[in-house]
Amino acid sequence: MLEVKQVSKLYENQRGVHSIDFSMSRGEIVGFLGPNGAGKTTTMRMITGYLNPTLGSITIDGLSMADHPKKARQKIGYLPETPPLYPEMTVKSYLEFIADLRGIPVKEQKLRIAEVIDRLGLQGRERQVIRGLSKGYKQRMGLAQAILHNPDLLILDEPTSGLDPKQIIEIRQLIRELGENHTVLLSTHILPEINALCNRVLIINQGRIVLDGHPDQLAHSMGETFEVSLEVKGPREAIMAELRGMEQIASVKPLAEEPAAPLKAAAVVPAADASQPELDAPESGAGADASVDAAPSTVKVLVSAKDRADIREAIFYRMAERRFPILSMKKESLSLEDIFLKLTTNEPAADPAVQSEAESAESEEVTPHA
């Protein structure tokens, strides 16, 4: 659906985008991550035709953006970080204006506008002036103009920026639904959003793609050790010896445990019997306040594998063979936040004078065009 081949955007005396190379298949939802100034917005504007690349080529569904820009743009829906709205227009007049820009036949416009209004929950607001809409509804209007012509590829730049939690949930659900029929490139700074929506992640840093993969496989692709946190019931020394004796395991490290508070056995007080003499209460002492330690003997450890192999099945069978019940077993891996920080920190500071032109290009507002 989308092919970006060795694309660069060079500015005089400053860092730009260098040799970006990736492709997207039809139906994918791809998250596009990177720190401020890394080149996300520049890349998306080149894909959508708002900026021309210095080098390289961009192809949309087989159409070159350089050779067939108008036809290629017709296959794209673009929502910039600041929605391209005209505040003095009403919701309906704005969508009619966008329909004309997008070349939607007049006889189809009424139906398409009605479908988009229904899909984005804009019913009852058709005559409302856009200036009076809330931030959430303005974001919906931005999505409406992006999908009105039913594009094959959606480019969404920070679609949930500035929304309240309820609005974020609604927009995420809408993007998830759009992903069923569209290819989506989603830029965001909200990392949980990537896990919630995307089946692939691109991370860009200093103008270059530094990682490309499935969110659940990123740690493995970075060469991280396969680790499992394990809780097993049984004698500590025997369990540790069994785990350390397995050839697939590189190391076994005890995990800190919360000290278990001893449980006290409740004293059974017999009912008073008038026919029996009253017994004196036992004196305070060990016998009077006996405590029973009911906490089970468990071992919590972090187990690291050799050669990054999945060791969970081998651990299960070894513990079952020795009759040590496994109470919990969890694969540990770097979170997306950890991976992002690992790949994008220690970036050399740029000269403010050199960086100013890039920041200006990144922050420039755009308005829709045909």
UniProtKB/TrEMBL annotation:
<protein>
    <submittedName>
        <fullName>Multidrug ABC transporter ATP-binding protein</fullName>
    </submittedName>
</protein>
<comment type="similarity">
    <text>Belongs to the ABC transporter superfamily.</text>
</comment>
<dbReference type="Pfam" id="PF00005">
    <property type="entry name" value="ABC_tran"/>
</dbReference>
<keyword id="KW-0547">Nucleotide-binding</keyword>
<dbReference type="InterPro" id="IPR003593">
    <property type="entry name" value="AAA+_ATPase"/>
</dbReference>
<keyword id="KW-0813">Transport</keyword>
<dbReference type="GO" id="GO:0005524">
    <property type="term" value="F:ATP binding"/>
</dbReference>
<dbReference type="InterPro" id="IPR003439">
    <property type="entry name" value="ABC_transporter-like_ATP-bd"/>
</dbReference>
<feature type="region of interest" description="Disordered">
    <location>
        <begin position="347"/>
        <end position="370"/>
    </location>
</feature>
<feature type="domain" description="ABC transporter">
    <location>
        <begin position="2"/>
        <end position="231"/>
    </location>
</feature>
<keyword id="KW-0067">ATP-binding</keyword>
<dbReference type="InterPro" id="IPR027417">
    <property type="entry name" value="P-loop_NTPase"/>
</dbReference>
<feature type="compositionally biased region" description="Acidic residues">
    <location>
        <begin position="359"/>
        <end position="370"/>
    </location>
</feature>
<dbReference type="GO" id="GO:0016887">
    <property type="term" value="F:ATP hydrolysis activity"/>
</dbReference>
